[in-house]
Amino acid sequence: MSALYKKQVKLEKTTIVDFLNISSKFAFDAAPIEMNLSFASNKLPAQYGISLKNKHGECVVMGYKRDEQLFYVDRTKSTAVKFHDQFASIQTASYKPTSQTMQWRILLDVGSVELFVGDKQIVFY
């Protein structure tokens, strides 16, 4: 994978209130893109996540509900093309963090989004 990457952008440690739009920090026009996120779980709200949107209004939301110890990926608004009845859905997986910091690895390509959490204990694609 690393041979496919051309440019790296590192964002400084940031405290986010409500939301942070990072689209102005780098261009999303070259795929694949790898995002590595680190969340300090003891300082987070009950529900948090990331929303990936394109210029067509299509959106994938990935998040974690701390009180329920539940990851989710919401693809209900991810595409206007209906190719499978179960694609536009919300997928969930239980996950109990093993440390105070939660690591997310997100891989973006032209037609896919993959989320890896922990030591690949949770995988969504």
What does this structure look like?
The protein has 125 residues and is mainly beta. It has no helices and eight strands. A four-stranded antiparallel beta sheet has the order 1-6-7-8, with no helix packed on it. It is globular. The two termini are 17 Å apart. The mean pLDDT is 79.
Order of helices and strands: EEEEEEEE
Distance between the termini: 17 Å
Count of helices? 0
Roughly what percent helix?
Answer: under 10%
In short:
The protein has no helices and 8 strands. The protein is an all-beta fold.
Describe the protein's topology.
Layout: E1 33-40, E2 47-53, E3 59-65, E4 70-77, E5 90-94, E6 101-109, E7 112-117, E8 122-124
Antiparallel strand pairs: 1-6, 2-3, 3-4, 4-5, 6-7, 7-8
Features:
single chain, 125 residues, mainly beta, four-stranded antiparallel beta sheet, 8 strands
